[in-house]
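Deliverable D5.2: sample structural annotation.
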Amino acid sequence: MKKIKTLICLACVTFSSLAMAQDEEESSYKSPMQKGNSIISVSFGYPNWGKFNLAQEFNYLNATNTSSSGFAPMGITAEHMLSKDISISFAGFVNSYGGKWQANKEIFNNGELTTENHQYEFSLIRYRFLVGLVYNISELEIDNFLFYCGAAVGANNFQFKESSTDNAWRLRNSNYFTWDSDNIELPISYRVNLGFRYFFKNNMVAHFDAGIGVPSINFGLGYKF
């Protein structure tokens, strides 16, 4: 009986020691995100919606000899911690897409229906500049692994060129340019996102998030000052 009591006492002492050690470890943990910190990040996005939706436009136009080009969104973000949980962000993104194709067009010529074959080509570069707020969800922070959510709004600009042997048709007047090209002519850009970041070194951080707006999926690396 004495042995059993002794074992129970030893188990209680061991459990208490482990619990105290765990409490000390948790109390000594310091979040890598503190007021006054800043992070500069390089980001890459996916997908390139303008290029992705161009394939559907080719089908709609019954196009032949098609080709598309361009690169997905990429950018730089600067973020400054206003408090332990709130930061302000400044971001710039750029992406491009374009295509070439041929298509037949039926027209009346001197009262007869004839078919013409035309060539089309366009290229577009889009720039976005956004200012936003980020909420770092400290309640979900675990060992340098942090969740966050954010919202941003800003300017939308683009450079567009097109050429065609068909003088009566312009891509800029099509539904593709208005809608499938990711609302290219909206005067503003926006993004609402949810994601996480991981500090694999004291000043080096990787991030991943997804949201509404461009880019839909965003990932990259950053450096904390």
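Annotation notes: Residues 132 and 152 are 4 Å apart (CA to CA). The chain is about 20% helix and 60% strand.
The annotation will be released with the project's public dataset once the embargo ends.
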